[in-house]
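Tutorial handout. Part one gives the primary structure; part two gives the three-dimensional structure as tokens.
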Amino acid sequence: MHRLAGEADFLQVFDDADHDGNVYSFLPNCKQPLQAMVIDFVEKEKAGTIIPLNNVNDRLEAILGISNKSVKRLKAEMRETLAVEKEA
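Part two.
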């Protein structure tokens, strides 16, 4: 499996979201696991990108099924969590 720089830290934030095995519990309207949502989106892009790769927030909105405001809040929370962990 190929990992991007920082991917392990990013995934750890999601893993820490819920220790009961629900890595998608921070998404209140989520009906399926985060992994399934990502796979579904990527499968739809087999013929070409649906949303340009440089539109990160728009892509996250589509993948996670949440609003742009929620994407921004989630990213800020993730950055804060990673910064606190680096200080420790």
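Part three, for discussion. Residues 7-87 form one domain. The CA atoms of residues 5 and 30 lie 27 Å apart.
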